[in-house]
Amino acid sequence: MQQALRHRFFALLLLGAPCLSVAAAQAVEFATTASATTPVATASAPAAPDTCIAPITYLPLDPAQVGADSNGAAALGTYERISPDGRFILRSYSGARLGQVSLIELPAQGSGPIRAYRTPFSNEAFPVQRTWRYLVDVNGDHYRFAQVLHEQTHAKPLFRAGMTGFYAVASEMAPDPSQPGLIFIRSISWPQSANPNDDQGVGPLQAQTIAVRDDGVQARVVKSTGAQYICTQRDAIDGNVYALPMLSINGREFSSIPQVPRQGQPSMRVYGLADQPMAKNHPCDLRADLGIMPAKAVFGFPPADGAPARLVYSDLGNVYVYDRALKTTFRLDHAKDRVLASAFPGLTRDGRVIYAATWHDCPDADAAACPERAGYVVIDPYQATSYRQYWQAKNQTPPKACITAGEVVSQRTAFAHQQGIEP
Question: What is the three-class DSSP state of 143?
Answer without folding.
Answer: strand
